[in-house]
Design goal:
2 copies of one chain form a homodimer. The first copy, chain A, is of the alpha+beta class. Chain A folds into 2 domains: 170 residues, Ribosomal Protein S5, domain 2; 129 residues, 2-Layer Sandwich (Alpha-Beta Plaits), CATH 3.30.70.890. Chain A is built from 10 helices and 12 strands. In chain A, the strands form 2 sheets. In chain A, strands 1, 2, 3, 4, 5, 6 and 12 form a 7-stranded mixed β-sheet that branches. The longest helix of chain A has 20 residues. The interface between A and B is large, with 40 and 40 residues. Strand 8 of chain A pairs antiparallel with strand 8 of chain B.
Chain lengths: 312, 312
Amino acid sequence: MKEEVHVFAPATVANVACGFDILGFALEQPGDEIIMRRTRQCGVVIRKIFGDNGKLSCEAGLNVAGIAASHFLNNVQPGYGVEIELQKGMPIGSGLGSSAASATASLFAANILFDKPLNIMALLPLAMECEKAVCGTAHADNVGPALLGGFTLIRSYEPLDVVAIKTPDDLLCTVIHPHIEVSTEDARKILRKQIALKDAITQWGNVAGLIAGLMKSDYELIGRSLRDVIAEPVRSLLIPRFKEIQTAVLACGALGCSISGSGPSIFALTNDQNIAEEVGRIAQGEFQSAGLRSEVFISGINQNGPVLIEEE
Amino acid sequence: MKEEVHVFAPATVANVACGFDILGFALEQPGDEIIMRRTRQCGVVIRKIFGDNGKLSCEAGLNVAGIAASHFLNNVQPGYGVEIELQKGMPIGSGLGSSAASATASLFAANILFDKPLNIMALLPLAMECEKAVCGTAHADNVGPALLGGFTLIRSYEPLDVVAIKTPDDLLCTVIHPHIEVSTEDARKILRKQIALKDAITQWGNVAGLIAGLMKSDYELIGRSLRDVIAEPVRSLLIPRFKEIQTAVLACGALGCSISGSGPSIFALTNDQNIAEEVGRIAQGEFQSAGLRSEVFISGINQNGPVLIEEE
């Protein structure tokens, strides 16, 4: 049995324009790292947290990495204990699945530390429980792709039905994170509970087109399908310059551009490195002119999910 | 130039459970046949109609095969004339795309008769105009698959975006047509114009699952995805014994079972000939116990669309 493991788990983009509440994909970077060690005492201790600007609690029950490790121990290895060092490599509350990355890293680390009693799919319900503990709902559109890698469809929750969707090799994602806060709760509250059948049909036509485009490596179809007529028109109001950025990003050749998760981060997909970089410059410039600082991440689609970085 | 052509165009199943207004597929049988001949006089004459039990008009402007031929001549070959013999091989008003089959056969025949001035995709807008003339809306979920064959996604109407979806080779469809009438207009009127976001999410999760399942040849995923929470719960009220038939058909091993188009026909998909036949027996028995006669069609997915039967 190992005494210490060091793992990485990726940031994720949920919703993906037309796929509200059912689609997400994993990024190669950014992501969170965790070093986890066995301890003699049972239970979970968080030793250190880096990269969070002091935002996160070191109390194991108040931090999603700690909650995840506790879930794992309670469900799979009762009577054992671990300690955690968490390196946040991504902004918190940015719409990039920060809690999902930490929960995934923690569960993945614990599973390796105890000689893989569970397979990856069996970690998913535990990861969803962590989302419920910190966000209020056991959604899987971040933890699904964070754990499984790639592009993930959550077809159904009852029963849970998660489907891996093949993506073209050279798909690139630019994420721009403006330094404003949008709470997931607020972003969910402003959505209407009733929608027009006409809009729903538009959305499911686009969802079908996106899945077909990804599986056929048809970039034009992917681009035509990356439209959201349900959440984006409302949620984009919470993101300064969203419309200007989207218009300019599409004009410069990106396949599509929408809100990552519930925001405030914006993502764009392309299959061209130059366009991916230009998208970042355009968006950063727009945010700057609104007086906002922002960070840019450019990444391929992460096909692996969490990985072991080094062993003791 | 040919003087006479004889063509076949297939029946189609639109909506396909979760794909309301965006999906359809073509059947190998039944379908309509048309013999079309050039005439010296310009314009369109319908010479004979067989197999319609006297239901259809021989007035070219009142019959969709005549309307289609007129559209073709007006748009592509002005000053020319044709005469038509129409063999209806499928029930009218059954939810199997009867008007789409006749329009498709007529356009396909005229295009061959005049040495293919248009490609198949260019016939689609003309076929949609025919649907508008006879049904009130220029929908493409029957004429799309009737013309292109296979499983067809209508991602968008403005602009028109039609995507062929690969299907597994051994998919079989059983269609059961009960002898009752459901008008497309009534079936459309009873749908609510506003739907719950929750239900819309369920539906687009299933649409995404169905597309992925078809493209992966994953029969279980196809089966899990063939659910309609939007149109079927309302429209099935117009079809006696629908729920009993659906329950029994799924219990006997069909992948999925729902309403074909706006009904009253019911379709089920399977990859097993024995189950396809048993589905027909079950449904016919249920309809019979409700005092209704019905016909059963068992067919593979038609990958060709309309075909030339013989040349002069």
